[in-house]
Write a structure and sequence with these properties.
about 230 residues; Rossmann fold; alpha/beta; four-stranded antiparallel sheet; 2 domains
């Protein structure tokens, strides 16, 4: 479950956002003042920060400037001002996105998913190799080795494996996998992702009846184990 820090001094708004995001499978911590925000961000390293600009004790811009050199994860600003100056200033000091109040919860959720997907894609592009236990995936050659044995994969299977392994330890929803692999939103009927997962499990020696390498997390998607590749 990804951890979001919300720094917002409007108690009613912060409570509504927290409840909505928790209902959508995020862990959410709320701070109603900017005073302790920087220390919290640097010590806890949440997966994403939603930062109001106008805060008591320390404003959002100041917090962002203070943490950006030690915090590389996404920051989304909330601003009550529809001002180009505010938006440009926020992006220049390291924000990934901004949302103008009043906040529509579904719009906020969509922007969060968009930013997290972009960060995940950038992280995958930067990696040249993934090694987890005895599993090694080489990006340049697109070859996969398990206990030094070459595993023959199709192009689609390789891309699915890379996506899952690059996000090992974090459940990836069927919707997200479908969007990345197929290029369109999941319609609730297409089983192509499930078929590819099944084939990948077989080739990687997973237990198809009780998978422990690529685990089905009901209601959340598929989880690539970080501990099952040492055998």
């Amino acid at each position: 479950m990804q951890h979001i820090l919300l720094v917002e001094d409007d108690f009613r708004l912060s409570a509504l956002i927290q409840q909505f995001l928790q209902q959508n499978n995020f862990k959410v911590t709320v701070l109603n003042s900017g005073e302790k925000a920087a220390d919290f961000i640097l010590s806890k390293q949440p997966d994403l920060v939603i930062l109001d600009i106008m805060l008591p004790k320390m404003d959002g811009f100041s917090i962002c400037r203070k943490i950006r050199h030690q915090y590389s994860k996404p920051i989304i600003f909330l601003t009550a001002k529809d001002s180009d100056f505010d938006h440009v200033s926020g992006l220049e000091i390291g924000a990934d996105d901004y949302i103008i109040k009043p906040v529509e919860p579904h719009v906020l959720l969509a922007r969060i998913h968009m930013v997290l997907r972009r960060v995940s894609a950038n992280k995958q592009q930067e990696m040249n190799e993934i090694v987890i236990g005895k599993l090694r995936i080489d990006k340049a050659s697109r070859q996969v080795f398990l206990a030094n044995k070459h595993i023959e994969l199709t192009s689609h299977e390789y891309e699915l494996l890379w996506l899952l392994a690059a996000n090992a330890g974090e459940p990836q929803s069927r919707d997200y996998i479908h969007q990345q692999m197929i290029g369109r939103e999941y319609d609730g009927l297409d089983r192509s992702v499930d078929v590819r997962i099944s084939r990948l499990r077989k080739k990687l020696g997973d237990n198809t009846k009780s998978p422990y390498k690529i685990i089905t997390v009901w209601g959340k998607g598929y989880l690539f184990s970080t501990t099952a590749w040492d055998e």
